[in-house]
Each structure stands twice: as C-alpha cells, then as structure tokens.
Amino acid sequence: MKDLLKLLGDMTEQHEGEITSSTELIMSGILDSLNITTLIGYLEKQTGREIPIGDLDLMKLSTPEGIQANFLASGAVQ
Description:
Oligomer: single chain
Number of helices: 3
Helix content: 40-55%
Strand content: under 5%
Distance between the termini: 18 Å
Shape: globular
Number of strands: 0
Largest sheet: none
Order of helices and strands: HHH
Structural class: mainly alpha
C-alpha cells in the first residue's frame, strides 16, 4: 500500500500524507484520465496481467483501498 500511495501522490502532485487509503480519487478529481492510464500501467506491471481499459470498472479505482483489494491483493480478480 505504501508504494501505491507514493505513486498516487507523485502522479497527482499531492503532498505526502494527503492521499490516504480511503481518499476518494475519482469523484474528487484527484485522478484524471492521464493519471488513470499511468495507474493502469503500474498495476499491469505489478500484477503481470493486462488490464483492458475498455472493460475496466472505474469504481474499482475509486480509493487506494479499492485498488489494493481489486488489483494488488493476492487472489484479486479484475
């Protein structure tokens, strides 16, 4: 989770600690379409699996907790 929070902070130019595991990323506008594309690339690299953008449910990216649970946890199903 720490690496994910750092990546999100770096991508969005948020100060350290401003993005927590429960921060709303999409509805708040923190993640825009370019950042989502970057995040998907990170997730694909971390999981070794392709994530088809056309099939992506953006609600799974709504918080860092959701991203962790849906993509990075062992046994996570996209």
